[in-house]
Amino acid sequence: MLSLSDLTLHYGHSQILHGISMQAKPGAVTCLMGTNGVGKTSLLKAISGTHARSGGEMNIEGNDMPKNTSAHALARAGVGYVPQGRDIFPLMTVKENLETGFACIPKSEWHIPDEIFELFPILKQFLARRGGDLSGGQQQQLAIARALIAKPKLLLLDEPTEGIQPNIIKQIGEVIKYLREKGDMAIILVEQFFDFAYDLGDHFVALERGRVIHDATKADTPRDVLLQKVSV
Ligand SMILES: Nc1ncnc2c1ncn2[C@@H]1O[C@H](COP(=O)(O)OP(=O)(O)OP(=O)(O)O)[C@@H](O)[C@H]1O
């Protein structure tokens, strides 16, 4: 689904990603791991087009995506991005936040599927509540739901468990498993909560200072080996 080859990224003169090559396949959770500051969020920004890469190739479902492809065009091509910190609109209602997910799909598909409320029942209950009045965990659920409304083929999740209470972490884990089992979506999960990531992951990519130091299936990634590679 997604294939990256020799991807580089800079902020001004400072180079953060140094030739990243990796893939993400439908029906699988690819965990992107590494200590703080290795470039995980920057890589998701490059894939989602929210910060243009400086070089390398990106291919989505067989189509080359030039490096100046806009975030909007990538969203239309099937990339759903749930950024770190969620970025929900605090003054808009839950319903309005969900409706912002319509921006990248044809008008004929502008409705909130029942599946969204089956996955996140709390959102149905709080449809008229302002986004900013939800708890952190509920905001995270809203951010994931909003991304799902655009029916992504590739879902990018940046630290979905950060600052969230254990019962909602468990629910988010169940949603990720459900989406994986549907089989048509590739999922890239950036996650510092090691056990959560190791439990969900089918494939593990570890970064160190903007370079890939590990890229293997779960069968070829013993827990202790990965833990050592992604620990300070
Ligand atoms: N907008 C920016 N301008 C300049 N440097 C930045 C910017 N955003 C991130 N960086 C730097 O790029 C490097 C990689 O940051 P990034 O957020 O991608 O890492 P990360 O692996 O996601 O870390 P974390 O787990 O802390 O989120 C860090 O050194 C960071 O300070």
From TrEMBL:
Pfam families: ABC_tran. Residues 2-232 form the ABC transporter domain. Keywords: Amino-acid transport, ATP-binding, Nucleotide-binding, Transport. One of its GO terms (molecular function) is ATP hydrolysis activity. GO terms for biological process: L-amino acid transport. NCBIfam families: urea_trans_UrtE. PANTHER family: HIGH-AFFINITY BRANCHED-CHAIN AMINO ACID TRANSPORT ATP-BINDING PROTEIN, HIGH-AFFINITY BRANCHED-CHAIN AMINO ACID TRANSPORT ATP-BINDING PROTEIN LIVF. Belongs to the ABC transporter superfamily. This is ABC transporter ATP-binding protein. It comes from Antarctobacter heliothermus. The lineage of its organism: Bacteria, Pseudomonadati, Pseudomonadota, Alphaproteobacteria, Rhodobacterales.
